[in-house]
Amino acid sequence: MLRYLKTNNAQAVMGEYVLVLFVVVGMVTAMTIYFKRAVQARIVGARDKMFNIVLNRTAGYYTGSIYREYEPYYANTESSAARSEDTRTELLPGATTGIFRKTLDEVTAVQTRSETAPPKDAK
Question: Domain range holding 97?
């Protein structure tokens, strides 16, 4: 039996394939942090480029400060809502018991004002 296993050379190939697979998976796993950093650097670079374009185009038109930070939880929001409803019910003669008709007329208006403050002005 051992002589049969010794002469069968294909058994070592499977082990090599498994080893190479583990090495490749390990390398890809180790490199994901570098891929993530590269993508984040491109995003920051694009943000800074857009910021500089806006800053150059608004020179002389805008007197306030333009901040690079965007923090959505520093938003000051004010909302007001108004609602009116008009309901009419009628019982019209007809058929054996009459015809029931109900008319609804609703109006809802919502006004929201939101301003995102820079982190230095957060409350």
Answer: 2-116
